[in-house]
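__Protein archive entry__

___
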Amino acid sequence: MKEDAYWIRDQVQKHNKWFEESIPMIASENLMSPLAKEMMISDFHDRYAEGLPGKRYYNGNIYVDQVEIKCLELAQRIFKCQFADVRPISGTVANMAALMALIQPGETMTCTSLDHGAHISTAKFGAVGFRGVNTATYPFDTHDMVIDVDGAAKLIREVKPKVVQFGLSVFLFPAPIKELKDVAAEVNAPIWYDGAHVLGLIAGGKFQDPLHEGANVLTASTHKTFPGPNHGLVLGHDLSEELSKKLNSAVFPGVTSSHHLHAMAALAVTMAEWEIYGEKYAAQVCKNAKALGQALHELGIEVLCSHKGFTESHTIAVNVAPYGGGAEAANLMEKANMIANKNMLPGDKSSVKPSGIRLGSQEMTRVGMKESEMKEVAALIHRVVVKKESPDLVKKDVIALKRNFTKVRYCLHEGEEGYAYHKLV
């Protein structure tokens, strides 16, 4: 019915208005630039391409090929890597491709456990289980929120995994790639790094450089600290020709058919803009995360790893167990137009009723907020979560704060020199 179509449009418009007046802090979300969004509604959206540029199974890809070649060049330049595949349609699809290329069903890989911050794709009910891979999880230092290096080295030597994997969904501090790369080499295991959350910080030189610290393969989504479309990529450095071919084949025909050409073009635009603005953006993201952690800490809320400056990334992990737990805190914040998610902390047994919330600074930074605004945001969280003020009252102040931050920053805008897409690529 046509009424249904208009009702759906109305719901989307209500969502748009709600988020325009909200402060989103989901650590896995971000805002695309206007120019990148333009790619999402282009004719690329309606077209199909299988294979690699110049070797397609479909005609009609003359300009698609040019954009994809430019996207590959930008990825290789930004990440200083030899191999790139920009066809995965999400981070998890990129992970599935890595699993397909690197390990066989029934074999074992080492990784981090969910309650220590891992992503669900490394769980039995995620991509790893779908591939039929067994896992052995690293000992974890919950005080410092890092992998126990000595324990991990012992585990790798005992298990002799086919793959040594690093990557987290609560990614506060760099993974010990340098410390464990020789141990991985002892057992002839490649290192795979899931950099979905910290891809923008890696590209901006503000976190770690996994491909030059010892990782062989890096997978990621492209819409978190890297502010592009919902898409994915696979990167590699100093790979053998055999492994490069395995990765390409795992992406297509392994886990994708057509690769969402509009999103690939939006990724290319985001990469081109990144070369101009990315380093400054990544630096401010990290500053804001630390400032938010410090402000909450000063208000008496437990933010993990206060002794280490809370975080080296965009994310902070907050223990709200004394105030009803993660689910209650996230629900109260949502009613006050602050969008966050409940999250397991070390020692939690339930992902439904965890003790923590996870907060990310990347989207607040994207609209121009800086350290002073992080203090205001912390105060708003404290009012609704700790003091239990009426969410409706707090929401008014959230809306007033957000009113000054509605424009996407660190990107090109219409009217600026170089805005036109053809000038970028």
Q: What stands out?
A: The first helix runs from residue 2 to 20. The two ends are 42 Å apart (CA to CA). The chain has a mean pLDDT of 95.
